[in-house]
Structures are given as C-alpha cells and as structure tokens.
C-alpha cells in the first residue's frame, strides 16, 4: 500500500513534529493506524503540506519497516537513535495499534524543490480527486486530500518523474513567486535557472558543464561557452553580495579551466545581489582579467 499523506508543521500542530523528515520516521495513533499497518517494505509514503497558500509534496519515504510503537520502544538501538514523538510517549499512554514507519535512509528523500500539487497533477492519478468548484483552489485541493490517498505503481512512477523534472528546473521559473517564496530561494535555484536559460547572460551562451569538480576537489557552479567566438565563461553564483572571496574563487576556477580542461580563452562572470562595500575598485580592476559582475533582482508583479 502506497499513500499520499497530508501533515502540518509543528508550530501549527501544537509542537508535534511528525513526519520527522530529518530521520525519515512517521507515526500514527488514530484511525490511520489501520492504513499504516498495511504498508510493507518497499512501499512509498509521499508527504504534503501547505506552503504559502499552495499545497506541496515535500518528501517521500521508501518504507523499510512499520512497527508497533510498543515494540519499537523495547529496542534500545531504535530508542537511542530516533526522536519521533510517538517513541517518546509513555507505554501507558499509547493508543491501540499505535505504529511507526521507518523510511530507508538511502532511498527516501526530502525534496530540494517541493512539488506543487495542481488540479492537473491530481487528474492524472489512478484515483483522480474531485475538486469542489465552490471552494478556493487551495481549500478544494486540501479537502480532496484530507483522507490518505492510495497510489498504485503507475502513480509512483508519475510522481517520481515530476519530482525529478521539478528539481532540475529549480524554484525559479516563469511563475510569479510570493514575497515569502523569494526569501526561500537558494544559490542552487539561481544556478539552475541560469543553467536552463544561459541566454539570460548573453544570447550566444550555451551550457557546457554544471558543478564540475577539479582535481583539487574544488567545484565550479557553471561553465558556459560563447558559440560566436569559442570563449568559455566560468559563472560563480552568490546569494548575497560579491566579495573578495568570490573573486578569488572565480580566478582559481578560470586557471583550472585553462590548466586541466585546456581552454585557451576563459572569462568569468560573478552573479550576486550587489557588490560588498569598499570592493568596487577591485571589481573594476578585475575587468582587465576578463571578470565581470552581473546583479540579479526581483521584478514586481500582481497576480
């Protein structure tokens, strides 16, 4: 049995954190114990919650084992390792059939980019959801997923494919982000966006490599190529302002591109949200070495 399961953040659930995604555990003490006890090794549990007025899948477990909490508490190795609140309850306070699922730590995953649950996604599952047209979209989706949704093997393949595509795209797309979502963006989101859209830096740029590791184990963000003149461009991305360390990094990567990859003409672009104070002169001086700075920002839009 595979399920799509909703949950709340601990601060909205009286401090009760479950699932505990950092340790891939999930406990049940109510009516859903019947469902969880049907789950076998290798089955999938997908977890979803509300983030900024949308519903997202945030993680999935490939289940290793489901146990009664009373039995799990007797195992000292489990008690010492896991912090799930169900395992911390006194034996006398456990409900009948209270149980806990353990996800395989190798195959289970907390998503870097949560997958939005849309009407289109729900319509393509083996048991499509009936959305109430009289409710707001979020309320309709949340209502349709209030009970655990069973998934078959085709559903699992479909969701895993969507997750892979979604994480490759990153959080920066053509969709309008809320202010809260902008603050959640990471360097890798900006990196993925540029990797998918290198022409944003220059119409002649194409992607050559991303996250390339050199012999000294240093790792560059992106390597682009100018199709017009065969120049190679190292791109180093910072979520914050450009500083002396960033300049030092990109110079190092440029030298390694020449030495290890045998590129004759290598330039550099530092991408950040500005330049650190008192650092402007060094940036101007770096232009003679083929290094420039590109600043990113956010465009105001109404949806």
Automatic annotation (TrEMBL):
Molecular function GO terms recorded: DNA binding; endonuclease activity
UniProt superkingdom: Bacteria
One Pfam family named in its UniProt record: NucS_C
InterPro entries attached to this UniProt entry: Endonuclease_NucS, NucS_C, tRNA_endonuc-like_dom_sf
Keywords attached to this entry: DNA-binding
Coiled coil ranges: none
Residue ranges of domain Endonuclease NucS C-terminal in the record: 187-279
Protein's UniProt keywords contain DNA-binding: yes
Gene3D superfamilies in the record: 3.40.1350.10
Keyword Phosphoprotein part of the UniProt annotation: no
Name the record gives this protein: Uncharacterized protein DUF91
Organism whose genome encodes this protein: Ureibacillus acetophenoni
């Amino acid at each position: 049995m595979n399920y799509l399961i909703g949950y709340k953040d601990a601060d909205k659930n009286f401090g009760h954190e479950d699932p505990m995604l950092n340790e891939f555990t999930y406990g049940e003490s109510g009516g859903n114990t019947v469902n969880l006890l049907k789950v076998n090794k290798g089955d999938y549990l997908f977890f979803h919650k509300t983030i900024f007025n949308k519903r997202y899948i945030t993680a999935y477990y490939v289940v290793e084992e489901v146990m009664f909490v009373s039995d799990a508490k007797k195992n000292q190795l489990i008690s010492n390792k896991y912090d799930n609140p169900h395992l911390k309850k006194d034996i006398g306070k456990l409900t009948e059939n209270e149980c806990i699922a353990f996800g395989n730590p190798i195959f289970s995953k907390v998503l870097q980019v949560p997958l939005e649950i849309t009407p289109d996604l729900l319509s393509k599952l083996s048991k499509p959801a009936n959305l109430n047209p009289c409710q707001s979209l979020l309320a309709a989706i949340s209502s349709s997923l209030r009970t655990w949704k069973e998934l078959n093997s085709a559903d699992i393949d479909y969701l895993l494919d969507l997750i892979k595509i979604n994480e490759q795209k990153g959080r920066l797309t053509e969709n309008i982000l809320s202010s809260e979502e902008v603050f959640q963006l990471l360097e890798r989101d900006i990196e993925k966006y540029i990797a998918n859209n290198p022409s944003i830096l220059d119409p002649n740029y194409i992607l050559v490599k991303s996250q390339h590791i050199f012999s000294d184990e240093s790792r560059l963000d992106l390597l682009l190529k100018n199709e017009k003149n065969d120049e190679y461009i190292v791109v180093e991305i910072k979520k914050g302002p450009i500083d002396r360390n960033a300049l030092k990094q990109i110079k190092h990567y440029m030298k390694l591109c020449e030495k290890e990859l045998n590129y004759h003409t290598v330039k550099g672009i530092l991408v950040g949200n500005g330049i650190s104070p008192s650092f402007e002169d060094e940036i101007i001086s770096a232009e003679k070495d083929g290094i420039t700075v590109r600043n990113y920002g956010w465009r105001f839009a109404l949806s």
